[in-house]
């Protein structure tokens, strides 16, 4: 226990209590928010960076709190994960993503594929695969248009990662490794995993036009992917220079503010309409 002197000790204790008090308030608000459907999705376009054709979108959750306004995911996803509330929230995100994608396909927006972020906590649920299967059936989305984004940490955190990812793939869903390059997964590991795509983390894209190490890392990821037959997509593309550096190295797909920030339904529709392939 920490404590050089009684006062220090009690101050330390108080701040911990204070923290968990705030945490409980936020947790209750989150619980209520899920029940009262205070969430919505934004969609960030994914493009073929050579043709500028929209190939799909990443679904990103937003919390519109009645008093506090819009709360960004970094403020509540970690809490949702540690409390397990990510399970019902993530289920809603997945259902809504599938429903919306199917609607867009039926309306003739083209063969859009949707990427959904999935937390380890969700994959650990014993009935996860069953739930996913049910959502696909309910929404009628062909699973080949669905992709799960999982972070590298699942390879360390989840005991039966491989078998669960195999089950996911058996359903016909694609798997992408998010924030690739920021974790510690050994590269030899990658080839044994049931994955389809590596998503180069935005930290490597950010300074690719000025930093040789970032250039080298992106090139290494592209070579690795080519050798073992994986797709690569880059996130966080903000500048024309990012596009040229990436495309001259053979990267095909990307997303980022250069093309579009995440958009609400109507704005996404407009974006797709204005970026139709000629
Ligand atoms: P992520 O999966 O790495 O998502 C990419 C984040 O980068 C998004 O932030 C996106 O808005 C932002 N971004 C996109 N383009 C650019 C760019 O050009 N430059 C910069 N600087 N940033 C860009 P967002 O929407 O705030 O989401 C943050 C994180 O929250 C996500 O990171 C993801 O880990 C998590 N998250 C969001 N939605 C969900 C969800 O439905 N489920 C789960 N489990 N996690 C989610
Ligand atoms: Ca993601
Ligand atoms: Ca990412
Ligand atoms: Ca991230």
TrEMBL record:
Coiled coil: none annotated. Residues 23-276 form the EAL domain. This is Diguanylate cyclase/phosphodiesterase with PAS/PAC sensor(S). It comes from Ureibacillus acetophenoni.
């Amino acid at each position: 226990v920490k404590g050089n002197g009684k006062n220090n000790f009690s101050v330390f204790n108080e701040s911990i209590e204070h923290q968990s008090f705030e945490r409980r308030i936020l947790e209750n608000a989150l619980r209520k928010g899920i029940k009262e459907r205070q969430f919505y999705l934004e969609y960030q376009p994914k493009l073929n960076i050579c043709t500028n054709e929209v190939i799909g979108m990443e679904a990103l959750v937003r919390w519109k709190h009645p008093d506090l306004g819009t709360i960004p995911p970094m403020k509540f996803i970690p809490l949702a994960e540690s409390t397990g509330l990510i399970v019902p929230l993530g289920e809603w995100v997945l259902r809504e993503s599938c429903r919306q994608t199917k609607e867009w396909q039926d309306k003739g927006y083209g063969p859009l594929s949707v990427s959904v972020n999935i937390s380890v906590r969700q994959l650990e649920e014993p009935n996860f695969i069953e739930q996913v299967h049910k959502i696909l059936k309910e929404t009628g989305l062909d699973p080949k248009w669905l992709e799960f984004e999982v972070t590298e940490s699942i390879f360390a955190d989840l005991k039966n990662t491989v078998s669960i990812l195999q089950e996911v793939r058996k359903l016909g869903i694609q798997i992408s490794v998010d924030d690739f390059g920021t974790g510690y997964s050994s590269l030899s590991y990658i080839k044994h995993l049931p994955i389809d795509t590596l998503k180069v983390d935005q930290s490597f894209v950010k300074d690719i036009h000025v930093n040789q190490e970032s250039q080298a890392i992106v090139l290494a990821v592209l070579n690795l992917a080519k050798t073992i037959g994986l797709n690569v997509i880059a996130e966080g593309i903000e500048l024309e220079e990012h596009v040229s550096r990436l495309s001259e190295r053979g990267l095909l797909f990307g997303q980022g503010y250069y093309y579009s920030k995440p958009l609400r339904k109507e704005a996404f529709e407009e974006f797709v309409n204005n970026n139709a392939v000629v």
